[in-house]
# Entry
Amino acid sequence: MFNPWLALTFKTVQLGFDVQNVIALRMMRLAVGGGRGQREARRMVVEKLASAAEAQTAAATAVMAGHKNTVVAKKVLRVVKKRVRANKRRLSRR
# Structure
């Protein structure tokens, strides 16, 4: 029988690699400093708060709908993954 947590674990590991890339790209932007570095620092804080609120809403909605824990975790992971990929694209092209 297939363990639903196993697939979620692999997706989380993949997300972890993307997160490391975003951190490295952001650190380079912050190290340069100036206006771009300051804007990135502010953006980072605002994005974290918005992402946390969106993930919490997704989890609460899934729990109230009676979904299993794996489905709740998957929905939260999807929210975080969307934000991380968007940041990776944005930071990579400049």
Notes: The two ends are 46 Å apart (CA to CA). The mean pLDDT is 94.
